[in-house]
Amino acid sequence: MRILKYGMSGPDVELLQLGMQRSGYYADNPDGIFGPRTQNALRRFQASFGLTPDGIAGEKTYAQLRPFLVGYFTTKIRPADTFYRLAKRYDTTINAIQQANPGLDSDNLQVGERIVIPYGFDLVPINVHYTSELMELLAEGIKARYPFTEVGSIGKSVMGRPLYSFIIGEGEREAFYNAAHHANEWITTPLVMKFMENYLKAYINNTNILGRNAAKLYENNMLFLVPMVDPDGVDLVNNALDRNDTYYKEAKAISERYPAIRFPDGWKANIVGTDLNLNYPAGWEQAKRIKFGMGFTTPAPRDYVGTEPLSAPESRAVYEFTQKHDFSLILAYHTQGQVIYWKYQDIEPPRGHEIGTALAEASGYTLDLVPAESSFAGYKDWFILNYNRPGYTVEAGLGVNPLPLSQFGTMYRDNAALMVTALEETAKPE
């Protein structure tokens, strides 16, 4: 995180505000603007942690702020500590502490032993713009709070950022949800992340998620998630790249060749101008012919298919990750349109229409066919072509991309129902 001062703005200011909000020092909703309210809140935060209250967020301030962004901290067990007393002291729950510390015996706590304390608030925020930095913080937080969840990376982006993955469950049937193939559709990342968090909370508390028994879903499925396929592009769209960075400058130069596309809001591609959802080996040559005919013959903010299938490291990583597993069903999250696309050309996977109908009923979305000009070289297309199993592109929300965070509540309501229904359907025999 860069040093933050009065008058600055951007997603890192939002993270500063989020951390102070969670710690109780900032009462407003994060807006990414370092104004007087943020400065005054920061001074109070700094003073409370024994720092010089200069209203400038540097390395020492960030070190105190970071636990509120990853959602946990570690401490040493004191004499007479119990999980109950720790939960009361730190305003969390006994169960949350138990789950975060599977190696500790609650009846035999050892003084001086390190213990993970999850905070009582939800980890996954829905009131800030997402970036690769936030994704890294959330991956750490999920691993600490729910250590039975496998957190890893399926590969790296052009700029070397991890493509984080999460694996939940112990069943034989596998489902895969991915999001943010397109940079300016980044709101799908918190959509998938919030569902994952609510599923994990329901599981450890032995409760339901949207009327379904979370423990039963966990036992019957393995859910794989890659919530941010295009972290570099997301950073570009959400102004998290330094404007002196070479990649930013190259993206800006690409955009200037396509002046009709807003920059950076209209950017869908990866950071070097390849549209990741047009880079899979499923009618790639047809996609090339269509998109070249539309004028996208060079790296572009959208619709450039790449030099060959899987030329982008991000799409290749998703392709290879899929090949290593045995997914019975996939959801690829995009925006917008409130529509679910289910076929690839004339291929109708077994139960594809049946499951698609159930997803449409759960979400209120329309089950439909992909428009002809966009019906090739997508991830869903390749999955159906290669495996002949149910695969769906879900176009969440309505409006002009990037969709505003004000839509998140409605989007989550509709798509949480869709995602839990997809898990139920995954568990059924083919």
Fold and architecture overview:
The structure is a single chain. By secondary structure, this protein is α/β, with parallel strands linked by helices. Helices cover 40% and strands 15% of the residues. The chain has 15 helices and 12 strands. The strands form 3 sheets. An 8-stranded mixed beta sheet has the order 3-4-8-5-9-12-10-11, sandwiched between helices. A two-stranded antiparallel sheet has the order 1-2. A hairpin with a 2-residue loop joins strand 6 (208-209) and strand 7 (212-213). Helix 1 (11-23) packs across helix 3 (59-70), helix 7 (188-204) crosses helix 15 (408-427) and helix 13 (352-363) runs antiparallel to helix 15. It is globular, with a radius of gyration of 22 Å.
* CA gyration radius, whole angstroms: 22 Å
The number of helical elements comes to 15
Strand/helix succession = HHHEHHEHEEEHEEHEHHHHEEHEHEH
State the end-to-end distance.
Answer: 48 Å
The class by helix and strand makeup works out as alpha/beta
What is the typical, i.e. mean, pLDDT?
Answer: 97
The total count of strands amounts to: 12
Strand content: 5-15%
Low-confidence stretches: none
Q: Helix coverage percent of residues?
A: 25-40%
Q: Kindly report the spatial arrangement of strands forming the biggest sheet.
A: 3-4-8-5-9-12-10-11
Largest sheet: 8 strands, mixed
Shape: globular
